[in-house]
Amino acid sequence: MLDDAEIRTRARAVLDAHWDEGRGHTYPHKSTYPHQWLWDSSFSAICWHHVGEPQRARRELAGVLSAQFGDGFVPHMRYASANHARGPLDHCSSYTQPPIYAHAARILAEAGPLPAGLTDRIAASLDWLWRRRRTPEGLIRLVHPWESGADDSPRWDDWVAAYLGAADPSRLRWKRPTWSAFDRYLVDSTVYDDAGVADHSAVFECAPAAYNALYAHAAAELAALTGDRLWKQRSAELADRIDTLLWDDQTALWSDLPIVGGGPCARIPTLDGVLGALVTQDPARAGRALDQLLDERRFAAPYGLAYVAREHPAYDRDTYWRGTAWMQMNYLAALAARRWDRAEVVSAITSMSKAAVAHSRFAEHWNPETGEGHGAIPLTWSALVVTFQA
Ligand code: GLC
């Protein structure tokens, strides 16, 4: 186990090593992920704030929102070099990602004034999602798994099985080339608007529990920042829809609602399903979901949190989004636990997170049982471990 001072020194080194002074943001990892990502940069801004670099924090957050379109859309990636891998545009992705920027802005405001116009940009982005991406039931819908941030979660397996012509999704084994081909197929199937932004899809649409919870949380954070009641109302309205439409009493989690395609895999117990606790008004539901963060049959593990419940057949402790642990998920789970004053849950996540960075060397994701690192090592948002310090 590393002590707090050593963790802080190493986290700071990870942040510094991935900062691009010219572009004013960090890369998730300089060679594996050489662009700016929306939710990564929002988390990096929080990291800079916590290591006492408010200027960098503000530049990072302002930079990611600088890619905003005139109608409010914010792309999931701002490219450092032109490509067409994520839709018809060559300077940025045509998709979006979880709106962590509102929470990041609320944290950054603790250290001084935000850059001019930042809250207006955040409002315009949330408004774009509200106008353009709501289902008739009032939930936010996504048109590609990338938009959830949880790219290869087992909750998408019914869509993958349909694409592969496989009868039984539970028999699928994750292979990067297969999942990458599926991703490209979804890009090709997306219908884009005149500006080249993803609008809808005839094969994949889903209202994920986590994205909806993060949106409702973002709206509440924006209301706290600006005092604008509209965002308080929208947050409450969406939280109510999440509780009415997504709560699954059997797993005691919030599950996803497939809109186009999909099937029962949307109810596989993943950590995403806990994030409804960020916004629900129901203490009993929040309590039952958060209890699972301490339960070793569910998400608790020596180097947790496991992304998929450990007792579920889909749990794969070494594979990307199939059971490995992620620091940004630990951060969000702890945020939900703090809302309900679950100090013992926060303390457990703190211990798991500190043990994990030491073993995995600040890896992108890691085996929750052994701490062995996977993916890009180090990855910038693993520096969020500093938020678990006293
Ligand atoms: C992977 C993750 C995604 C993240 C990106 C950059 O694609 O699934 O959530 O934003 O890497 O770190």
Please summarize what this structure is:
This protein is mainly alpha-helical.
Describe this structure in words.
By secondary structure, the chain is mainly alpha-helical. Helices cover 41% and strands 8% of the residues. It has helices spanning 4-17, 38-50, 54-65, 101-108, 118-132, 157-164, 176-189, 209-226, 229-246, 283-291, 327-339, 343-360; strands at residues 19-20, 25-26, 36-37, 77-78, 190-192, 198-201, 205-207, 247-248, 253-254, 257-260, 365-366, 373-374. It has a two-stranded antiparallel sheet. The protein has a two-stranded antiparallel sheet with strand order 3-4. A two-stranded antiparallel ribbon has the order 5-6. A hairpin with a 6-residue loop joins strand 11 (365-366) and strand 12 (373-374). The mean pLDDT is 97. The chain binds alpha-D-glucopyranose. Alpha-D-glucopyranose binds next to helix 2.
Secondary structure elements and their pairing?
Layout: H1 4-17, E1 19-20, E2 25-26, E3 36-37, H2 38-50, H3 54-65, E4 77-78, H4 101-108, H5 118-132, H6 157-164, H7 176-189, E5 190-192, E6 198-201, E7 205-207, H8 209-226, H9 229-246, E8 247-248, E9 253-254, E10 257-260, H10 283-291, H11 327-339, H12 343-360, E11 365-366, E12 373-374
Antiparallel strand pairs: 1-2, 3-4, 5-6, 7-10, 8-9, 11-12
This protein binds alpha-D-glucopyranose.
Element-by-element helix/strand order: HEEEHHEHHHHEEEHHEEEHHHEE
Nearest-angstrom radius of gyration?
19 Å
Small molecules in complex = alpha-D-glucopyranose
β-strand number: 12
Helix run count: 12
> Within the largest sheet, what's the order of strands?
1-2
End-to-end gap: 16 Å
